[in-house]
């Protein structure tokens, strides 16, 4: 007996939202610092200091960051396969670039934690560059997918309504973290953690939109085994069926 084939669109409708929703949680791994003796003050330290090369939990937080990047890349690639279109395609590829840049961010970590080590430099050229690429790809994905939702994705009202607010607020919180880069450290950790929460909100919005697209629209359901009616010039044509002539009594 032949094995039933699985519709790839169904798999994408299930797995892409699940991967992105999971990434929203994993990407905010910084909450573990409230449970672990990291020695860093969340108000005045960068999250990337958690996986700085000389830190105690470098391997743990670096590994979680890599897992989050893999979830985002896999979810974006699956979502891209089911949602063609110029703006749409560019938005998902930007999210893939975000994941790749996040991997590079872990591969070239900060050498030390400047918030607790005074000789440590806050500007690490390689790590600062990869972090800038992470933000560039993230904001590009937000702008492109919000534009796509506004132009032609009626099943994405949440992205269309809340996406611009998430984009604007995420950019504001990201800019509020650059103080140490200009010699003004302090209180940059709080806005950065707020920024990461907003990134998680963005992933959840995308996951919810993909799930909404997978639901059947009203009026499209049909009985099992009955073929869908063909449409010609906007009018449905019923399948031809043979039936016995009615008895008119003659």
Automatic annotation (TrEMBL):
Keywords in alphabetical order: Membrane, Transmembrane, Transmembrane helix
One Pfam family it belongs to: DUF998
Transmembrane segments: 57-78, 90-110, 130-153, 165-182, 194-212
Membrane keyword on record: yes
InterPro entries linked to this entry: DUF998
Source domain of life: Bacteria
Region (Disordered): 217-250
Keyword flag Membrane: yes
Name of the protein: DUF998 domain-containing protein
Species annotation: Streptomyces abikoensis
């Amino acid at each position: 007996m032949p094995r039933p084939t699985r519709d790839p669109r169904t798999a994408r409708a299930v797995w892409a939202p699940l991967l992105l929703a999971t990434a929203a949680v994993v990407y905010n791994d910084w909450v573990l610092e409230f449970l672990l003796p990291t020695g860093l003050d969340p108000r005045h330290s960068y999250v990337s200091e958690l996986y700085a090369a000389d830190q105690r939990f470098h391997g743990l937080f670096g590994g979680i960051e890599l897992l989050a990047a893999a979830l985002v890349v896999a979810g974006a690639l699956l979502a891209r396969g089911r949602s063609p279109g110029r703006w749409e395609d560019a938005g998902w590829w930007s999210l893939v670039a975000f994941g790749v840049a996040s991997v590079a961010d872990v591969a070239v970590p900060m050498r030390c934690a400047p918030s607790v080590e005074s000789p440590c430099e806050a500007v690490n050229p390689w790590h600062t560059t990869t972090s800038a690429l992470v933000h560039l790809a993230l904001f590009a994905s937000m702008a492109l997918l919000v534009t796509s939702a506004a132009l032609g994705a009626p099943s994405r009202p949440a992205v269309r309504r809340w996406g611009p607010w998430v984009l604007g607020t995420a950019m504001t919180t990201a800019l509020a973290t650059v103080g140490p880069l200009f010699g003004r450290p302090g209180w940059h950790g709080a806005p950065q953690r707020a920024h990461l929460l907003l990134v998680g909100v963005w992933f959840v919005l995308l996951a919810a939109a993909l799930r909404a697209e997978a639901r059947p629209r009203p009026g499209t359901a049909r009985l099992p085994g009955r073929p869908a009616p063909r449409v010609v010039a906007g009018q449905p044509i019923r399948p031809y069926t043979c039936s016995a002539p009615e008895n008119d009594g003659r």
